Target: protein-tyrosine-phosphatase
Amino acid sequence: MTDSSSFPSFLFVCTGNICRSPLAELAMRREAEQRGLMVDIDSAGTGNWHEGDRPDPRARATARRHGLDGNQLRARQVRTVDFDRFDHIIALDRSHLAALKKLQPAGSKAHVSLLLDHVSGRRGDDVVDPYYGPEEGFETTWRDVEAGCKALAARFLDRPSTC
Model:
């Protein structure tokens, strides 16, 4: 059995873990796969309203249009143990960032940040929640999470190993 603690790890967090964060999880999985890397990637919500549910059907349709399958994903709530499991906990908007900073235990290993802070010229921008809007909003969300994950991968996965 392989020890996943030696792999870079990312947790993407939105409100209910059915729209933005599962799309970010899938986008980051693609980035790691394209690089041939083993990476621990997951997503979670700040709330537990959708615990155990698959991503929103519109999010899954968006993923399919981009060649990805989100059917295996299930919503869960972020837990305090996540702050020691993951190297990077990435908030999809500023409200999630604030919630994560309140939840983060002192001395935990995770670096908490806002996804679009990793994209040049997007510091402080939120990934807009598409849940209450039309299906086209999921494409806007996809573009944002894809840009964020490409930037994260370039910053944290394209470095020579120090092992």
About this structure: Helices lie at 20-35, 57-65, 82-85, 94-103, 136-156. Residues 10-157 form a domain with the Rossmann fold fold (CATH 3.40.50.2300).
